[in-house]
Design goal:
Spore Coat Polysaccharide Biosynthesis Protein SpsA, Chain A
Length: 305
Amino acid sequence: MSLDLTVGICAYNEGINIGKLLNNILNFQELPAKSEVLVVCSGCTDSTVAIVNRYSKQDSRVRTYIESKRKGKASAVNDILHNARGNTILFVSADTLPNKRCFPRLLSKLKHPNVGIVCGHPVPIHNSKPLVGKLVELLWSFHDHTFEQLNDAGLARHATEIFCIRKGIVQRIPPETVNDDAYLALIAKKKGWLIKYDTESRVSICGPQTFTDYFKQRRRVLFGHHQVRKLTGESPQHLVFLLPIYPVRVLKLTLWFCKEYGLLTFLTFLSVELGINAAAALDFILGKGHTAWSVSSSTKRLTNP
């Protein structure tokens, strides 16, 4: 039976947040009448499976797909792409909480015939130690501004922690893929679809609370960008990769950052980012894998937005 919407969630040991997320989706996101929520539990060793099964018994819209062994997020994404019955798939990270009416806003913008993906606005809700908290603030503020500028020009080429995609644009992703959202967006872009960003469709996330977790998370993401460029032949949405193709836009983004936060702050942030990017590039050159990555535990302490 064909449905209007499949909500896809990839979960690995998300017992702390998965119940809150499912309650949010089922009760506060105004799902279309013909909807399902497909949760892929990948090698979980905590209470995740038990919590999802409890919800599936209470609500027939919730379906559980269990991977006995953790194979990496790409495997879970492919399970959703293959088993989804909805004409639209809305991916949401298991360690997030969408704000009210986030789903309806995303889905309404996907109605435009040329739009293939619509993604929401991640908002970190925790303040951590001064240095780490400032890095998280700068990262996501710059992320949001970059998306807005590229979105207005029809040049966005990335997705976020929450996005919806028309079913069939991508059948599966390579099993080694780390940045599944970037891969899906770049393939959609290559096929002629627009990627749109809605700053009002907000999803609360918990940024890293320690510098170790910040470094580890950014290293994995930047490794994923190098990998995606190799897999697709396209430049992902990061300044290092955008500079050769959109030099004027990168310059304007840099000037905005300096004006907003000051030159010294920009240089400090840039130094940290380049250092992490160097580590990520070395991982890529040496063939280090991040498919089933080490979890940044401090990013799991999410509270209600």
